[in-house]
Amino acid sequence: MLKTDELKKLEAGKLLEELEKAKKELFKIRFDVESGQSKSHHLIGKRRKYIARIKTLIKQQQ
User: Fold this and answer.
1) Backbone φ, ψ for residue 24 (5° rounding)
2) 42-48: which pairs have CB atoms within 8 A and are 24 or more residues apart?
3) What is the pLDDT of residues 1-46, one digit of tens each?
4) Dihedral over alpha carbons 1, 19, 11, 58 (to 10 degrees)
5) CA-only gyration radius of the chain, Å
6) What's the predicted TM-score (pTM) here?
7) Residues 7, 15 contacting (CB under 8 angstroms)
8) What long-range pairs does 22-27 form, CB within 8 A, spacing at least 24?
């Protein structure tokens, strides 16, 4: 996960790549929590906020 300052420096294409990567990680975290392999359910909220942050920066650049 990149910090907000680092995300602001990225171009739109890189932000879209980061968004796709974050969505895949969220899916993996959800799968692990649901299957009982991980008890780190707090990471779901963190990853969702990160995705929202990226989407906001993409909208601001448009």
Assistant:
1) -65, -40
2) 46/1, 47/22
3) 889 999 999 999 999 999 999 999 999 999 999 999 988 899 999 9
4) -110
5) 13
6) 0.90
7) yes
8) 22/47, 22/50, 22/51, 22/54, 23/51, 26/51
